[in-house]
Amino acid sequence: MNPGPDNTDQTDPTEQIGTVDARLEVLGIRLPGPYPPHDPLDAVVVHGGRARTSGQLPRGHDGRLVHPGVVGSTIDVEQGAECALWCALNALSVLRAELGSLDRIERVLTVIGFVACAPGFEKQPAVIDGASRLLHEVFGDAGRHTRSAIGVAALPRGGAVEIEVEVAIRE
Q1: Residues 160/166/167/169 CA torsion (nearest 10 deg)
Q2: Selection from 118, 120, 101, 130 nearest residue 20 by Cα
Q3: Short-list 21, 33, 22, CA closest to 62
Q4: Measured between alpha carbons, how far is 22 from 44 in angstroms, rounded to an integer?
Q5: Contact 119/138 with Cβ under 8 angstroms?
């Protein structure tokens, strides 16, 4: 018997949609890349029920960096958060390429975020929130994760942000 719609339903949004790719489509998100790292590095290592990405830069659909520069100097916090979002999209792109489907991701475990920032800049968490919000939006509660947000003097290729993502996977 189907009791009909229940307005108190607290179902995870990814369960309502069915697949992560369908969820991305509903959100209007198209993944860039994937942009693999240079040899001898792997974009993703899968081991012991987990997958971990190499550092992902904020590359757009054209492969170029989004807002290159230094947060707190040449770009602002909002642009930095947009960079973090693009880093997360690139992490999802390499994970999908390696795993065959983002539906294999059971849970986002950890995000490590690096922010190229001016001396004295202390808003690294606000920058990396761009990645955290995206992962939560895509995976619902399974997108909640632990995180570090670290300020650094410079990042590869002049990127403002770089993130690494570790996920638990279904075998």
Answers
A1: 130
A2: 101
A3: 33
A4: 23
A5: no
35-51 per-position pLDDT tens digit: 999 999 999 999 999 99
Q: How far apart are CA 140 and CA 138, in angstroms?
A: 6
Do 135 and 108 form a contact (C-beta atoms < 8 A)? yes
Closest Cα to residue 127, out of 60, 73, 166?
Answer: 73
What separation, in Å, do the N-terminal and C-terminal C-alpha atoms of the chain show?
A: 33
Rounded distance between C-alpha atoms, residue 130 and residue 96, angstroms:
20
**Closest CA relative to residue 97, chosen from 142, 144, 42:** 42
Count structural domains, the chain.
1
Chain mean pLDDT for the chain: 91
Whether the pLDDT of residue 9 is over 50: the answer is: no
Tell me whether residue 134 is in a domain.
yes
Residue 48 lies in domain: 15-169
pLDDT, tens digit, for every residue of 100-146? 999 999 999 999 999 999 999 999 999 999 999 999 999 999 999 99
